[in-house]
Amino acid sequence: MPETSVAHFYDELADDYHLIYADWDASIRRQGDALDGLMGQDNATVLDCSCGIGTQAIGLALHGHRVTGTDLSARAAARAVREAAHRNVTVPTGVADMRRLPFPDGRFDTVVCADNSLPHLLTEQDVHAALAEMRRVLRPAGLLLLSTRPYDDLLRDRPASASPQVHQSADGGERTVTFQLWHWHEDGEHYDMEHFQLLPTGGEWRVKVRRTAYWALGRDRLAGLVTDAGFADPAWRMPHETGFFQPLLMARAGK
C-alpha cells in the first residue's frame, strides 16, 4: 500500500477531521461530559497522549481540568491549540510518540488515550511500551482511560467496511460523507483501513483517500497487556453505561 505512517495519515486528515462528526462541537461536549463523569475529580492534571485536533482534550478542559495534549501529528496538535483557544480554554500540546512521552515520572492524575489510537501500534512490544509510558507518567493510583473500537464484535464478524457518516455544514447546506473500507490480514487481527471523504466542490464530489493500519485487540487481551504494564483493576465500561461512544478500559496505576 502507499504511505501508511500514522503521523502522515493524521497530518493529511487534520484540516478535515471535524468533518467525521455530524456535529463536532456537540461531540466535544458529549465526550468531555462522559470522561469527566468517570474521573470523579475536579481540576485534575490530564495528559491526552493521542489528542488529535482536541476532541477529548478540549471537552475536559471545558470542565476545568488542566489538560496537556500530545500527538504524533504536528498538524493535528497545532490545530488542537487553536480550537481550544477559540473555545476560551487553554490546551498546550506537543508532538510525541506515546511510546516515549516527554514528561517526568508521576506528572499526571489521569492519562487519556481515546478514539482507537492505541491499536495503531501493531505489535505487543509497542503496545507494552506505550502502556508502560502511560503508567510511568501517572501518579500512584492515577487513572487510565483508554478507548478502542468494539473489537470483540469486529473480530467475530471481520466486516469489510464501516457505516458512512454524514456531516452537514452549520447553515444546513453542503454535506460531507466519510466512510471506511477494511482489508483484513491473514492473521485475522490486523487490518488496513482506507478512509474516504467525499467533499462537495462546484456541484460535484471530490474524493480524498487516506490509508493506515490497525491491530484489532480484543478486550481480554488488552486488559492483560494493561495489567502487565503495571496497572491494577482494569475494567471495561460500555457506551450504554458511560455515554462515551466507544468501549472504555479504566485502570489505576499500581503503587
TrEMBL record:
Residues 46-142 form the Methyltransferase domain. This is Class I SAM-dependent methyltransferase. The keyword Calcium does not apply. It comes from the Bacteria. InterPro entries: Methyltransf_25, SAM-dependent_MTases_sf. Pfam families: Methyltransf_25 (PF13649). Keywords: Methyltransferase, Transferase. GO terms for biological process: methylation. It is an enzyme of class 2 (transferase). GO terms for molecular function: methyltransferase activity. The keyword Ion transport does not apply. Its EC number is 2.1.1.-. PANTHER family: METHYLTRANSFERASE, OS06G0646000 PROTEIN.
